[in-house]
Amino acid sequence: MTENAAAIILVQDVFWQMGEALMFQHTNPWELDEALMDWGYLMGPCEAQDLVGLEKVLARSPERPIPILHRMVSEGRMGKGGGVGYYRYPGGGGAVIDPLIEDLILEEAWFGKMTRSELPDAALVQRMNAALTPVCANLLDEGMTPAALLALLGVAIHYPMDRGLGSIGMA
């Protein structure tokens, strides 16, 4: 695995796990994706994971503190390739909201004795971006240039490159 590929996986894992935490506590997949896309991301994290394949996402980092992805995969929600993940993909087409995933998330939160509360879109975006700060700081400390980091974020998580690094706490 190349150094760049390892950095992409690291960024994705941190970002996607923050998304799981936000869904567990505050939101659902389509609201999270919509908030990020309205802010400028080219694709939301839930749809992106569906395209990668949820079993592959889980296999990369199986020690997850939030039970959502484990349950989804155990129930056969593998992402677009399997026809259903965070979204449904009827006939292999585009993503369609699946209210059953909202039920799954609410049920897991209930089992976990989590009291959920809504967050405004701006707060969802801020928390997702803030999750990137430590990993991006480490990549810069290891010698990655700001331009290379920005390009990596664009590839890894569909980050809007015109936003620069300031939105994730990097000057």
How confident overall, as mean pLDDT?
A: 96
Structural class: mainly alpha
Q: N- to C-terminal separation?
A: 29 Å
The global form is globular
Low-confidence stretches: none
Number of DSSP strand runs:
2
Q: Report the CATH topology name.
A: N-(1-d-carboxylethyl)-l-norvaline Dehydrogenase, domain 2
Enumerate how many helices there are, as a single number.
Answer: 8
Strand fraction equals under 5%
Number of domains: 1
Counting copies of identical and different chains, the oligomeric state is: single chain
Radius of gyration: 16 Å
Q: Architecture, CATH level 2?
A: Orthogonal Bundle
Order of strands, widest sheet: 1-2
Sheet with the most strands? 2 strands, antiparallel
What pattern of helices and strands is seen along the backbone?
HHHHHEEHHH
Q: What fraction, in percent, of the residue positions are helical?
A: 55-70%
Q: Overview of this structure, please?
A:
The protein has 171 residues and is mainly α. The chain has one domain: Orthogonal Bundle (N-(1-d-carboxylethyl)-l-norvaline Dehydrogenase, domain 2). It is built from eight helices and two strands. A two-stranded antiparallel ribbon has the order 1-2. It is globular. The mean pLDDT is 96.
